[in-house]
């Protein structure tokens, strides 16, 4: 006998059923959250509480741009702010504008680090947003410190102030001097832009290089001055050597792979006069490639262009190719990056891209070879075409909208730090991924990254 279809329940009965179902939901265990609500609340409340102070610190750095190794005012502002926020400040390095801000709760536990950059660029100020990077680091450290206290998590948070990212290799020097030796993991963030007033866009690239390796070098050409009209044959033109090398490098680019870069400038004009054969010129260049090895090979080819130009013109040259100017390709730790992407989506609804890379470079790349690390990228509103290293981006980096986004990113970094310090399984997973990466790539910290060059 066929059963007849069930008739719809009377509305009063259906309402009662719905009410019963809702009441039963309270008996079902909640889906495990990324971290406890207590940890997240502690992080968010602490960062929100210092938001106005962070904005003031942001502007103090933004409005007083200072070049690499000369970040005296920014250093003073950061050290003062961190001291008031309850951190212990030291500088166990040779760099006067570096610092380490430390807070420890309980005994034992792991150490999680953040980085703050604060150097600017010539003529365009904070056109790479290092004022934002600085306050993201401070706010993230504040948030993690609060979580350690509120949730009684044993561990240490360290914020390392790293000068000279825009050349000079501040982090390379600090790694060599041991400032990263006791970190179990590390994180930072970096803004980008130039795409107009777009919705929040973030990244934590994995699966390969997240940025290119970079190797810088300088070459000085020494010629002989002479009267350009009366006796030009008596001179040896150093500027000709620089221009000839510059042209040769431009021709070299035709044979470079799409992911390789060579760029530089000619310097020395302050010593020139149009009626004197230039006796001095200098070039400052960088090469970039997917790996340090390929980058150094390209640097050697590029230097050969200038060596040949020096020989052709009769100039002598001095080559400076320091290990401090070798920035490794950045390799974000996969568990840290994926956890950050997961949290930002759950907490804010933001989609974080984990595929792709930037063809820029950073000395944070060297950190990713030293300790499990990741860098969170994020876009700030800036006019179309006003990307990093432009005056337009510098202006955008000082806007309230950029600050607001930076504080959101700081919350994400702090939560990842709290997860790492409170979740032993996650910490093991993070370290296991790092060990696998190092086994595959080898140790970057070799006695010398650069090769010797024959001086002409």
From TrEMBL:
Signal peptide: none
GO MF entries: dipeptidase activity
InterPro entries: Amidohydrolase (IPR017439), Bact_exopeptidase_dim_dom (IPR036264), Peptidase_M20 (IPR002933), Peptidase_M20/M20A_hydrolases (IPR052030), Peptidase_M20_dimer (IPR011650), Xaa-Arg_dipeptidase (IPR017144)
Stored Pfam families: M20_dimer (PF07687), Peptidase_M20 (PF01546)
Gene3D superfamilies: 3.30.70.360, Zn peptidases (3.40.630.10)
PANTHER family (alphabetical): PEPTIDASE M20, XAA-ARG DIPEPTIDASE
Assigned protein family: Belongs to the peptidase M20A family.
The protein's name in its UniProt record: Peptidase M20 domain-containing protein 2
Organism (species): Kwoniella shandongensis
Taxonomic lineage: Eukaryota, Fungi, Dikarya, Basidiomycota, Agaricomycotina
């Amino acid at each position: 006998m066929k059963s007849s279809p069930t008739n719809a329940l009377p509305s009063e009965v259906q309402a009662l059923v719905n009410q019963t179902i809702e009441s039963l939901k309270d008996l079902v265990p909640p889906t495990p959250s990324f971290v406890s609500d207590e940890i997240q609340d502690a992080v968010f409340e602490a960062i929100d509480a210092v938001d106005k102070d962070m904005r003031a610190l942001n502007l103090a750095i933004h409005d007083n741009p200072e070049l690499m190794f000369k970040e005296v005012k920014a250093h003073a502002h950061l050290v003062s702010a961190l001291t008031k926020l309850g951190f212990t400040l030291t500088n166990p390095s040779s760099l006067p504008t570096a610092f380490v801000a430390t807070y420890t709760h309980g005994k034992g536990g792991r150490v999680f680090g953040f980085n703050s950059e604060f150097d600017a660029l010539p003529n365009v100020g904070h056109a790479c947003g290092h004022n934002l990077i600085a306050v993201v680091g401070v706010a993230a450290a504040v948030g993690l410190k609060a979580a350690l206290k509120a949730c009684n998590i044993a561990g240490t948070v360290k914020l390392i102030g790293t000068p000279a990212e825009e050349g000079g290799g501040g982090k390379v020097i600090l790694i060599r001097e041991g400032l990263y030796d006791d970190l179990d993991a590390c994180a930072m963030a970096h803004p980008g832009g130039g795409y107009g007033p777009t919705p929040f866009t973030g990244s934590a690239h994995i699966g390969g290089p997240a940025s290119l390796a970079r190797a810088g070098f300088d070459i000085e050409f020494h010629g002989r001055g002479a009267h350009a009209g009366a006796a030009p044959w008596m001179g040896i033109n150093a500027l000709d050597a620089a221009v000839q090398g510059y042209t040769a490098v431009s021709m070299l680019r035709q044979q470079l792979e799409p992911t390789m870069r060579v760029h530089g400038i000619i310097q020395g004009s302050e010593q020139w006069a149009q009626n004197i054969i230039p006796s001095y010129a200098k070039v400052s260049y960088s090469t970039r490639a997917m790996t340090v090895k390929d980058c150094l090979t390209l640097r050697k080819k590029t230097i050969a262009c200038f060596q040949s130009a020096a020989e052709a013109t009769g100039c002598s040259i001095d080559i400076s190719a320091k290990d401090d100017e070798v920035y490794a390709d950045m390799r974000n730790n996969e568990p840290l990056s994926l956890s950050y992407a997961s949290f930002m989506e759950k907490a804010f609804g933001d989609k974080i891209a984990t595929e792709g890379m930037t063809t820029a470079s950073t000395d944070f790349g060297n950190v990713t070879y030293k300790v499990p690390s990741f860098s969170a990228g994020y876009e700030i509103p800036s006019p179309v075409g006003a990307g990093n290293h432009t005056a337009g981006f510098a202006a955008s980096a000082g806007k309230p909208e950029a600050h607001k986004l930076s504080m959101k990113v700081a919350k994400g970094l702090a939560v990842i730090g709290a997860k790492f310090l409170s979740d032993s399984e996650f910490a093991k997973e993070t370290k296991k991924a790092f060990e696998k990466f190092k086994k595959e790539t080898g140790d970057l910290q070799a006695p010398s990254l650069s090769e010797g060059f024959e001086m002409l």
